[in-house]
Design goal:
By secondary structure, the protein is α+β, with helices and mostly antiparallel strands. It has a single domain (3-155), classed as Mannose-Binding Protein A, Chain A. Helix content is 23%, strand content 27%. The protein is built from 4 helices and 8 strands; from the N terminus they run E-H-E-H-E-H-E-H-E-E-E-E. The chain has helices at 16-25, 32-39, 70-79, 89-96; strands at residues 6-11, 29-30, 50-58, 82-83, 106-108, 122-128, 131-137, 150-155. Strands 1, 2, 3, 4, 5, 6, 7 and 8 form an 8-stranded mixed beta sheet that branches. A hairpin with a 2-residue loop joins strand 6 and strand 7 (131-137). Helix 1 runs parallel beside helix 4. The chain is globular and about 40 Å long. The chain starts with 5 loop residues before the first strand and ends with a strand.
Length: 156
């Protein structure tokens, strides 16, 4: 269904320290929420690298044309064969997506590490004012994402 927008990405094979170093070397900015996620023991990295297919979809393309909560988006995505991403995919994706255009951000769909609305949910990628970002974000469980919000999921 969304395979025409699938992007092949290499993930894994680097420690969190190596990922942070690579992000800095590439001139990618992090916000405080991203730093908090990197410090989270639940954010683990794989010692071996693997190739994955990541697919970008909007909330509306999932059939949620009035917007939806994260749970509703993730449930609908699973229903069409998409899967949540491990947290480590976001920094790898950022490092491999250096030509992102200015404008809307791209949320990497992943499982939240803590059931706490004050704690970051995950990462998103953005280019703003020519600057590349890997940012952590917070969204409450009742937050309604706009129909145009863009998410990345894994595809088989």
């Amino acid at each position: 269904m969304f395979r025409e927008r699938a992007r092949k990405l290499e993930s894994g094979g680097r420690s969190k320290r190596e990922l942070l170093s690579s992000l800095r070397d590439a001139g990618i900015s992090l916000n405080r929420y991203a730093e908090v996620l990197f410090e989270d023991p639940a954010f683990v990295t794989s010692e071996t690298s693997q190739w994955v297919l990541a697919t970008e979809v909007t909330v509306a393309e999932l059939g949620l044309t009035a917007g939806a909560t994260s749970v509703e988006i993730y449930d609908r995505a699973r229903g069409v064969g998409l899967h949540l991403c491990p947290l480590e995919l976001a920094p790898h994706f950022r490092l491999q997506f250096l030509d992102q255009s200015e404008g809307p951000y791209l949320t990497v769909a992943s499982t939240k590490t803590k059931d706490d609305d004050a704690y970051p949910n995950g990462f998103y990628l953005r280019r703003k004012d020519t600057r590349l970002w890997l940012r952590g974000y917070r969204a409450t469980s009742d937050y309604i994402w706009e129909p145009a919000s863009r998410f990345v999921f894994l595809t088989d």
